[in-house]
Amino acid sequence: MLLNHFFTALLSLLLFTSCQKNEAESVKPDGQPTETPTDQYLNFAFDDTKAQINGDCVTGCINGEFDKDKFFIRATASNRRTLDITIKNFANRTGEFAFDVDLAALEFSTGPGSTVYSTGYVNCQSPYNQVNSDGAIHVTKWADKVDGYVEGSFKTTLYPKGECGRNGRAITCTFRVKRVR
User: Fold this and answer.
1) Could you tell me if 98 and 123 lie in one domain?
2) Contact call for residues 105 and 88 (beta carbons, < 8 A)
3) pTM score, whole prediction
């Protein structure tokens, strides 16, 4: 039992020290934030909330992966808001990937334990069918290999999960993400 408390305290200290170091490294001596050069970004507006993530893990982290026929981007802002962009039947090309036809999807969380919004919902009355948001993910540049960049944008409405299509909220996004896999 005492050993468990020791390891818990040690882990807490390491995490605290790590966070303090990252915060200190992200501030210049004059108190202004430093800018970490990066070639990637993900900028989005969800209703009246805006985020500019440049992938330095100070403004937020971005991860772009391709696995067989699925393309996936996860962006986590410094305030722990998370945006997942997925194209399940991805054809390794530029183009428009609709939320209904091409199995493209978005999921947005405003933080741990908060409401999750997505591009689809299920009707709460018969016939209980899946309804998808209008619009598509527009991929304007595709990275043929790892370390290349994928660029694109989208504009649509996201719906809170479990609310049958009520309370939809607008989202717009532009991105340029390095492919890591």
Assistant:
1) yes
2) yes
3) 0.74
